[in-house]
Records
---
Amino acid sequence: MCKDLMNQSQHLQRVVDHFTTEQIANNRLQLKATIFIVRYLAFQAIAFRGRDESFSSLNRENFHESLGIVTFWNKKVAEIIEKAPKNATYTSPRIQKEILHVFSAKVKKAIREEIGDAKFCIMVDEACDESMKEQMAVVFRYVDAEGFVKERFFGLIHVVDTAALTLKKRIYSLLSQYCLDIQNIRGASCKRNEQLKVANANEIAPLIDLEELEIGSGLNQIGTLQRPGETHSQLQELNYRFNEDAMELLRLSSALEPREALKSFRISDLCLLVKNFYPQDFTDYDKQVLEKELYHFEHNVVQDPEFKKLKSLSELSQWLVRTGNSEHYKLVYRMVILVLTLPISTATTERAFSAMKLVKTELRNKMEDDFLNDSLMLYIEKDIASTFSLDSIVDDFKDLKERRVPFS
């Protein structure tokens, strides 16, 4: 008798466990359908909501119409949604925004991890959105662990005014929120005429006005450092547009550029570059060792047949990491990434505002700042967001707060 009761109990437990497992799988599938649509709409900068989303509407607008396509081709999803409790369909505007925020938070976390302890530059610009709010776009420029130069959009911040002090406070707050060390800043620039000075960045490395660097004669768009133009008119233009410090920085840094190094590897210029512009990044001992390391670099690396194929400083950075020379010549590689960290263009911040015009249109001018910011993170950094699995988004969504149905 006892054995029969035990067997019945175990059978009942298996039925309950099976039901729970099946229900959880269904709940996750239902939520993944919503996540899939949110991601698609955000990637394409398409509006989520419409004027009339009622069941009787012939056009329930993009989210619900997209959901209709998914359920038309996936009968299991359609069945699950149909049977779901009315208070747990996970398709409401609030849920859509929560999913979008999960994506955005994961993108920022990935960027923060990519930066790591690297030195970085802050690039900011301001513009008014469709509702005439002043927005500040923040972009980080840095070299990642594989030697690639990255410029990552890190968010849009609403500011009450564009005074330097206001911008500085908001940037400090952002850095603190993501545990980014102010001491790692190696440049902070604003597209406006005045420079934006953050902490002691102006003492650590030169701050160059982005308006000046846009002429491209000193730095081109792919990170290749070149000597100023050879003609008299080009030299006059450079002298007019750049201050003396910027001109000296460009001249000394050009010694690192592969094509220049092949002509004449100017060791004295590189030692002077460290002394004049990066004293905080090299100890006294480093400076003593640097000249010897540069000598070995000239004879062992610059003469490498593969080195002769390199066309830019960014290519050199990647090649040094790929070949392991970034470890053998640490001081040289440190110089390379510090120079590459300098801002050379306003293109990324300008693209952010172009994206803002696509997302916050005249018909969507009441978008909240958080919704706008999260939408832009996915649209601009979709190469990162696209790497996240739907299941990982479900798990993070579940952890935001207590949910009505189980997802694990």
---
Amino acid sequence: MNLFVVLVFLMPLQVLNNSPTVQCFMRNLLPILHQYYHPGDLIIAGIMSQVRTFLNAITFEKHPSKELSDDHTFLTQTYQHIMALAFAVKEINENPQLLPNVTLGFHILNSHFSASWTYQASMELLSSQSRFIPNYKCDAENTPVGVIGGPTSNVCLHMTTILSIYKIPQIIYGSAPVMNDRTQAVFFHQMFPNGTHQYEGILQLLLHFRWIWVGVVSQDEENTERFVENVIPMFSERGICFDFIERFPKISFSSNVGDLMTEAFESFSILMQSSANAVVIHGEIHDTITFRLIPWGAEFVGMPMKSKVWVMTAQMEFTSLPFQRSLSIQFLHGALSFTTHSKEVLGFHRFLQMRNPNSEKEDGFIEDFWKQAFNCYFPKNGLEEMERKICTGEEKLETLPGSVFDISMTGFSYSIYNAIYAVAHTLHGMHLFRFNHLKLAVRERRRFLNIESWQLQRFLQSVYFNNSAGEPVYFNKNGEIVAAFDILNWVTFPNESFHRVRVGRMNPIGPSENVFTIQEDAIMWPSRFNQALPHSLCNDNCYPGYRRTKKEGEPFCCYDCLPCPEGKISNQNDMDDCFQCPENQYPNYNKDTCMPKSISFLSYEDPLGISLALFALAFSFITALVLGIFIKHKDTPIIKANNCSLTYSLLIALLLCFLCTLLFIGRPEKVVCILRQTAFGIIFSVAVSCILTKTTIVVVAFMATRPGSNMRKWVGKRLGTNMVLSCSFIQAAICIVWLATSPPFPDFDTHSMTEELVLECNEGSTIMFYCVLGYMGFLATVSFTVAFLARKLPDSFNEAKFITFSMLVFCSVWLSFVPTYLSTKGKYMVAVEIFSILSSSAGLLSCIFLPKCYIVLLRPDLNKREQLIRRNIK
């Protein structure tokens, strides 16, 4: 057959007509058995695949051409395509507003899903009605003004090879073929929307349901090869990975059913063993025949049939062979399929109900369709088949299960319906153009009926109309219909019928937020998922609180789950990494959410704060009491002997030390933060300076008692005052510099405590803070050293031994303060500093003043000059 096609286009017409070989070939050429011709003023042709031929082995026992027709079967589901074309022509002819006084006819030929039959059908359209002589027509009125082709891309490809030479417009309702010659593509228009939008819709569907571990089954054809090479990498870039990419065996003109099934079983085995619950099926309309063998194949290889969510492309439509009629379709329950957008057309159901093989003699398809749809036969020559019932012709199409024939208009049929109307509106527009511009009204009808098909091309490109369903129909600049894809959910029933429910849409011409829509609640899932959303993952999700890490040697969709490290969370499934909470929040126990941190500071409501405040007040009261005792007994010898002014200054400084701890309790404010450390540093410096001065005076007084000593001039009140003021002034200067350069300020510590936001006083300059502590430590060290050296001076009024012990306590407290302060966090740092202030101040108070108070209050007999002198002599 293909050899003949080559001869037609390589040899001149005269040679072809006179060639004995070609004439012999044409005489023996099998006629196209299934045709449907309806006369009209203008003819629209249709090359459609309705009948599939399967080739048995050639035995050479009879003419090979006869063996080609031995085994053919009618795909009952695709008969609706013919009905859609006939119905559209009928509507147009009954519409007085469209092509008035002109009737449309049609000529539909079967192409058997085969390249050779498609070539023959194309050339038959270029031949005389009575004789097959390509390129020769004596009845010009039967030349088609356009050709509707489909449903597979191969039919369209082989059809355009011939028809484009004659510049005949072709409107294809299947997927677009891969065109190597762009000049041919000029003459065809696609009723199938741009496939890129469909693939984007499939991707959005997978991502919406988080099906990232999927399988792909495609047909071994050029169109699906392009899908595997170009589309699958796009899916991978968006996070989809594939457990398997399998190919179903190719169904061709010479396919044998037994061989076909044998080749498919291996693919079935891989498919059933896969852990992927979502499988994308990419193929053409007839590939459903192979797809329906899945349950049979699973049973044949001894594997349990696992329900999966099949995601089918719009190129596919439900078709089956007669022997598959008894096969269950329950495995299709819950499937999702894309389809070209369709809408029920008023009157189409009624048109189908009126079909009757007894009255439709023009229809060369209806008899075979009727026999296979209703499993009956039409008796011929008085012969009867005992095992089958006789067809009456009165059977009703609506009684057939959906698996045999669907009376609801499918996407392909809707495309054919719109294609016929597109041609009709184009012809109508051409008629109006000629009538209005060429002013040939008298001869217009005759000239219009002799229209050349190539003239239709320019008008067809710009056609725009609303069909009877109220939807606009028009083509883009690439000759593709501008339309949406519907997403259908397959619901099957025990009687092997099914219903397809529209649950979503991929509409590239809509608003960006409505390009992809899906009604998840309306979807019926496969039975084994118990109406729960199926998951299709390589492994379980990494739930919040965990992060995923790639498995070595596995696809990127396969991963292990590791818990988030301390301080980090993950709040979604399958996060690649955990992240830190904001500074004012902290991870909860499960590390899957951030909790707001509570603001923490050492307050008076806090038990610790109350306790420290009570201690501070208690020590302040004791200090004030001691001061009162010393003032009351200021004339006693023991009080006079220890420099009253320095004693009073020291007690007042200690009182202020106890009271300054109250600045550390409560909510930190700006003024409070400035006063805290500076007041503490200056007051403590005054206290320590007083102690240093008292010790120094003891030493100077002892040295002044030696004969010929020059130290007498230093003895007096001036020495004490100057020492206290000078030592305190240095600390005050340090504090002034601190406040001038980087003063303390209220601040939130977000890092020290996990669950708390610590409100504290930021020191501003840590260096200046430690300078204050360091200077205070320097004074304490000097005081301790001087007191230690003077502790054994022979003087009854010598209090150096008490000062030595008190400074030992003081230094011990502050030496332990630094590491303790640095190791604690939050409000406990403030508590450590308060405790250090209280304990060191209490140490000074108790070690220096309690022995004197004991003598003053409890042993007044010892507080006499004579007693003190006696003790000194001893």
---
Amino acid sequence: MALATRTGGHMCRVHPGEFACRALVVDLADEWVLHCEATAVRDPRRSASAVRSFAAFADTWLAGHRIAPETVRLAGTDVDLTEVVFAWEHELRGAHPPPSKRGYELASSLLALIGQRAQREGDVPAKLTARAAAPPLFGKPPEGPPLDEFTQAERLALRDAARADIRALERRLEAGRDALARGCDPVVGGWASEVNLVWAVHAGVLDTAVLRAHLPTSPRHWPAQLRQIAGKSVRRAPQELLAGLGAMLFPREVDLQPFRVLLLLAMDECTPEELHDLRLADVEFTDRGVRLRQTKHRAARTRRRLHTSPAGPDGPEVFQGEGRWDVPGLMRRLVAVTEPVRRTYPATAEWLWVAVEPDGIGCARVAGRRAGFVLSGRRFTDWISRPRDGEDRGLDVSFPHDVRRLRKTAKITKAVVLGGAVADLAGDDHHVEVFRRHYAHGTTAHVLAGRAVTGAQQKVFASLTRPVFADDAAVEELTDPQVASALGLTAGTAKEMREGQLDMGLVNCRDPYDSPHAPADGRVCHVAPAMCMLCRNAVVFPEHLPRLVLLADHIEQMRNRLTPPQWQAVWGRQAATLAQLFDECASWMPEARHEARGGRAWLDLPLGMRTEYDQ
């Protein structure tokens, strides 16, 4: 007798009769069924694999120790199962070395089942109970580097490919409905007609055995339409034909991947698990959107989210949901393309993500099931790698092809738009530390943070190194204490500057004896005027602007004499400071340039400065 459980749409069985220690397997399988039902696990196959793996090992271990396996039970005292568990864990460590998590997951699952039996019945030996309460023999492998988000180009490529695939799916299903309307029973209309085979698939009477019985043995003798549906495969032609006929009427699992991509990019507050676990009852359409009831099993929390869609420019407020790429529109289109599956296969009626795939090996037929997106050919990476129309390869998207990166992309996009503190970005979807650890590390976030820090530093540095400009009004009232204080001058310094005693040949200097570019030894600045444009002591009057125009021309001439790295190192910062100063003094610049070009101003650079900087 097989023990089975169905959780989250997955049917899983354990057959005790396949093992010599069947009594032990019955005990463990009973606990497995109770555990799955009590905790509502999404996928019971992990615990079932632990039971099968341990049972297979126990058969070998008991036989090697000449112990009758049929007498061993969890509640028995004749055999110390603790030793068997330890030996099994050692084998798991060798079979699944780090960084694989498989061994740790199997050991944790089995210990949980034994511990559950010990608490529920209290008949498990004390030594085995203590072992079940302890952690596995080896720890969980450390997590790898955190996933990064997709780049902007990758996000757009994924979005465009998903939209194109959804359009193609809707066209394909529409053509399939038309073929179904024109088809009839192949017994009456013939087995060589494509539309009749579509009718047979929809009626549930077609399988690979029927195809082999009514079609020529060699696919080369099939009608051209059937060969086109089956593709180039010869050995598996009946299976491929059956799958192709089913795909004309129902979506396949890989056909639903574009909906996952677009919805996860649009809903940053929804995890892939929450989206996958949606039932049809969790989706409620309103006048202008859709309300989703999202259940997060890890947090034991259920949330309801309303996603609205703006009304058309002159359309009604009631949202029809056709042709829209927002969340309500995508949900309506998803429900529409999966509705034939729920209608034809009532066992899938409660689930949102349902598809049809061939079921069986020797005699396969199409069957509706809940989409799992985990089997080969149906995963996210399979959809990305699938060749597109007119191309021999899939999308150019960086690895790993992990669907969780879609949500991270949406999260980082939201962070870029909103900005603000980490607490604001985390919102009600995460704790601050969770957001900081799992989302704030993204490349885009780091780049933006770096730009923000760099911008702030540049502003600070600019305020410390830029010259101060005093316009005509300020120069006229320079001896006024308030004006002098605004320019950072004392009354005596302002008077000396007004009289021209602090002119350094290029600009004024508020303190020639306290240069930031020279040692603080009380001596007069020896780098003026070479570094005046990078000095916080510099004060520019309107009368100095013609000289600065000539300096800017001189710096531009140096581009032809110096290599680019050398010019940037010697003159680059000064050229940037001059450009910024000229922008701020735009109203004075026409007259200043006229004086400079007319020969009424001159640039007197020391010989040492020309020798040092211009060669």
